Amino acid sequence: GESVGLHLPTLSVQEGDNSIINCAYSNSASDYFIWYKQESGKGPQFIIDIRSNMDKRQGQRVTVLLNKTVKHLSLQIAATQPGDSAVYFCAENSNNNDMRFGAGTRLTVKP
Amino acid sequence: DSGVTQTPKHLITATGQRVTLRCSPRSGDLSVYWYQQSLDQGLQFLIQYYNGEERAKGNILERFSAQQFPDLHSELNLSSLELGDSALYFCASSTTGGASGNTIYFGEGSWLTVV
Q1: Could you give the CA distance from residue B61 to residue A91 in angstroms, rounded to a whole number?
Q2: Quick check: A46 contacting B, CB < 8 Å?
Q3: Do B4 and A43 touch (CB under 8 A)?
Q4: Residue A84 contacts by C-beta under 8 Å, 6 or more apart in sequence?
Q5: Is the CB of residue A49 less than 8 Å away from at least one CB of chain B?
Q6: Of B109, B39, B115, B28, nearest to B76 (Cα)?
Q7: Tell me: the pLDDT tens digits for B20-46?
Q8: Calpha distance A71→A80 (Å, rounded)
Q9: Which residue in A94, A97, A105 has the most chain B C-beta atoms within 10 A of its own C-beta, making it the best mutation to test that interface?
Q10: Lowest-confidence range among A104-108, B51-55, B97-101?
């Protein structure tokens, strides 16, 4: 069936470097995408979203890129900090009201 | 703080028992969602309610049920519990239950341990 998935389950980066977390989706009807950050023992926290009529959106230190041609989504974190260590989930949504989440990527920031 | 409140935060119970998890959505949100997250697993969508009515159903077992009350809080009932039901159960809420573009905000979760 349709699914959302992540290319890499773990990512380790040096503090200060940029991080890129990738996500693939297969539902061509998806038109809204969200990245969530989940710290240990906490609920997922909204980071940034993007609609399918855009291919790039920037927030504070984060950028989401959407490539609808290859159904690929990425989250870029600039100047990664120890506080960015968490599991990052992409999620996609379409008019069926069912927001589906990827498996998650664990980001570890080394000091 | 997302504004979504879940209770209890932790719960330990025996196999075969029944528990109820409670969720209060953000002020003004009409839609409530329930998700299950097992250890090192992704978020599995269980069910969604909008303004008291069931809106969407995911991978929810028949032993599980939920409802949304007139004051918009929701309860997730888990019965005949099995060891495999041990997980984090998240409630989330959103303003509407309708079309795409509906950002949902999560509570801190209820840790259920079945022994």
Answers
A1: 22
A2: yes
A3: yes
A4: A19, A37, A77, A107, A109
A5: yes
A6: B109
A7: 999 999 999 999 999 999 876 678 889
A8: 26
A9: A97
A10: B97-101
How far is A96 from A103, CA to CA, in rounded Å? 20
Residue A10 in tokens: 């773990």
Q: How far is A33 from chain B (nearest CA, A)?
A: 8
Q: What is the pLDDT of residues A33-85, one digit of tens each?
A: 999 999 988 899 999 999 999 999 999 999 999 999 999 999 999 999 999 99
Strands B74-78 and B19-24, by their bridges, are antiparallel
Residue A100 to residue B97, Cβ atoms within 8 A:
no
Question: Does the distance separating the beta carbons of A31 and B102 come in below 8 Å?
Answer: no
- Strand order, beta sheet including B64-68: B5-7, B19-24, B74-78, B64-68
Q: How far is CA B39 from CA A31, B42, B86, in A?
A: 29, 9, 9
For tokens 């977390």, what's the residue? A21
Q: How far off is chain B from A16, nearest CA to CA, in Å?
A: 27
3-class SS of residue A83:
helix
On whether any CB of chain A is under 8 Å from the CB of B61, the answer is: no
Token pair belonging to B58 = 């995911």
Chain A positions touching B101 (Cβ under 8 A) are 31-32, 51, 93
